[in-house]
Amino acid sequence: MLLALASLWGASFMFIKVGVRELHPATLVCLRLGIGALTLLPILLVRLGVRESARQMRASARPLVLTGLVNSAIPIVSLSWAEKRIDSGLAAVIQAAAPLFTAFLALLFVRSERVAGSRLVGLVVGFGGVALLVGAQPSADLTAALAVVFSALCYATAALYAARRLGDVPPLVSSVGALAAATIALLPLALTHLPPHFPSWKVTGAVLALAVGGTGVAYLLYYALLAGAGASRSILVTYLVPALALAYGAVFLGEPLTAAALGGLALVLGGVALGTGALRGRTSLERWPRRSAEPSLATSTSSSSSPTTTTSSRS
User: Fold this and answer.
1) Helix, coil or strand: residue 314
2) What residue spans of 49-138 are helical by DSSP H?
3) Which residue among 157, 241, 295, 310 sits deepest, i.e. has the most Cβ atoms within 10 Å of its Cβ?
4) Cis omega before residue 312 (within 30°)?
């Protein structure tokens, strides 16, 4: 599930880059999230039925709305705006700051989600690569890079919040409800930035790929991971996304593979190896327990994300 989600979100950065060529970021994101919700809605109705789906949506309305805003609407618009100015692969690498923000917030608020020892070292090493890339940006692109960092912070916050408030909600309900809430929130802004003509077939294809694969299917996987593995571990998917996004951008968009990007990526992947325990000879999936029923965040994407996919993220 983790690898499948990383592959979908890695490609999402490339499709965002294509989409913002002709669409305003808010319009692109609104279409993406709306179509994503409609993609999952029939599956939800078949699985739970209309009455049960409506009941669970009403019971979790507040956390679904907040998760939709913080994990989808806000960070993905911020990310899409940034990709009008920086490469898609670079945006993916910078967004790997999400696990560090998750760890920092968990240290402050969430006992069951705290990260320590080699896992904490891994997160710091990974964020070192992100900091290197942000600092290496020219002044004209610095704001865009910081916008991606902001989206990572949103994903981390949403991951903790969703794991606490939506952990017992079926992933389909969480996905459809959060996506629908984000779509409705963005609709007024999207309608004021409609394109003057129907988008080209490349942009249309990018929107559909983002909506069905990078949003509908990916969010279902993301919320299932949150419910089963917890926020601090699930958000590590954003560490696996950059390598794939860099490859997609280089192969399909002709984006350069700079030394700074590769160096930052190496630090990020080193953080993954430490943060998931791979260097100790055990896979992260083997070590991930089910989430405890202990309350974790007093009442906290993406995707964003992404994920939040977080990223989540997640984009």
Assistant:
1) coil
2) 50-59, 61-68, 74-82, 88-94, 98-109, 117-135
3) 310
4) yes
The set of residues, in sequence order, having a beta carbon less than 8 Å from that of 16 and lying 6+ positions away, is 28, 79, 80, 83, 88, 206, 210, 315
Cα 161 from Cα 234, distance rounded (Å): 13
Q: What is residue 168's three-state secondary structure? A: coil
* Those residues with Cβ within 8 angstroms of residue 80's Cβ, 6 or more apart along the chain or in another chain: 16, 19, 20, 25, 28, 29
pTM higher than 0.85, yes or no? no
47-56, 162-171, 278-287, range with the lowest pLDDT: 278-287
In whole angstroms, give the CA distance from residue 312 to residue 110: 19
Beta bridge mates, 311: 308, 309
Biggest alpha carbon–alpha carbon distance for the chain: 56
As given in the structure block, the two tokens for residue 122 are 């891994």
How deeply is 121 buried, as exposed, middle or buried, from its count of CB atoms within 10 A (0-12, 13-18, 19+)?
middle
Span 264-285, average pLDDT: 63
Higher local confidence (pLDDT), 300 or 252: 252
Give the span between the Cα atoms of 80 and 88, in whole angstroms.
Answer: 9
